[in-house]
User: Fold this.
Amino acid sequence: MVFCYNDAMMWFWNKIIRNAWFVLFVVAASHCAGQEPEKNLGLQLEANPPMQIIARTPPEPEIPTGDFEIRDGYELIESLDEFRKAIKKDGQKIRLKPGVYRVKGPDESYEGKQHLLAVHGSNNHFDLRGTVIETPTSAQSRLPSKAHVSSCWRVYGSKNTFIGGYFRNVLDMDYPDYRVADNEFEILGDDNRFYACTFLIQGSVPYGYTDYYGKGAGGGGGRLDKHSCMGIIRANGTRVEHCKIYQHSFGHAIHLHGVDGFLASDCLISGVLRPTNDIFKEKDGRAKEYGFKILYRGERPIPRDQMIPLTESGIRTYEEVQNVIIKDTVVERTRACYALYCIGEVHLENAIAREAGDFAFAVTSTKAGKATMKNCHADLAYNPVFNFTRGELSVRNDYELTLHDPPEGSSPTPRTGLGIICGDRCQFEILDATTKPLPAGFDRLVCGDKKRPLINSKVTNRTAATVVLSENARGCVVYSVGPVIDQGRGNRVVKIKERREKKEK
Assistant:
């Protein structure tokens, strides 16, 4: 069956998200009616049965059929050709007439790059409410196939604001007979802003296998053609506010490279999960061709009874990134929900992770900066909550997270757990808002691993989970409701009483 979150039952963002945790897990209407999920030949081969996924259904765009607002000082543009010309100029206020616009081919090349729409202008406001701009796989296939050359939109200009646009990919060619651009949006200019926009990102090859056949520069077993929503490349001050990103292709929703300053506020980033058992039903394709084995980073069998992401990370940093703020934002069903390895300040407040496809949180900063997680949230569904085994070792950072029930109908996998925390002179506090016992055998928080320590840190565990102080945990103080297994050195353990977190309904 196919599960989805119904947008009609979405979180009431401004009033509820700051104070409550609601998990709405409903069966898609087509399945409720006893129908099998439809096969999408833009995402899978015809010989295979319909792919079983867990995903949120993107909303249909709202396109006014009558009068529409043109704000004072805005110039009306009524065609895509006019709009392509306008985005190359500075200092405008443009109102694109509501409707559906489909890009048919590339814009001009610039500095050896090629794209479908090039924003050279700066200091513009683009009012796109009620408009849908489509970049189909047929148009993307006309772009160069060389890595890191093509994008659908490339924003060279600075201080532009995009308001209310619905940007979506259309699968008008059968899988896998198309190519896709690296990013839907590639941001190269400073201080650009996306406000109340929706992004539906589809199309990547291969699809359905997470990173089993390659990711990044490394591949395995054939062509790797990823498609991310937004790449921010050495561009500072980008703001993504009140936006929804449906990342339904293998690629990151948002990835940052060499950035100083980024804000995500009141956003939803939603990916796709697939049970590994469903892969074994395939009769054709990459997995069948290689005997249902993983090729990336060593050949081995595809595991059964696990839940994998068909997308990459929700928000991911590369290179030297600092001054990142994420607040009142939900990331669900992506490989890593928040993978933030920074050299400077990174602050998360009311950042929510649901049904992580690999892990929920990796938020680190070196001693030159500070990482803070305040009033953050995660569930214990299929994969670990924490993974602090990557990036630089966190120094003097503070982390507060509340644990919630997994969605109804979910079951633990062999990877379920609270994960691994590492650091030096850090503080971790884990609060409990669950309403039923944590699944036995999956309720462990590991402190320090073989390569990275947890040293001179304070851990407050207000859940019933077991805290395991590894051999690489030293000089820590642990306050815990649940049991503590101390395999380290010089640690102090204090038993505390249970304290339940209030849940508003």
Observations:
- The first helix runs from residue 13 to 16.
- The chain has two domains: 73-320, 335-505.
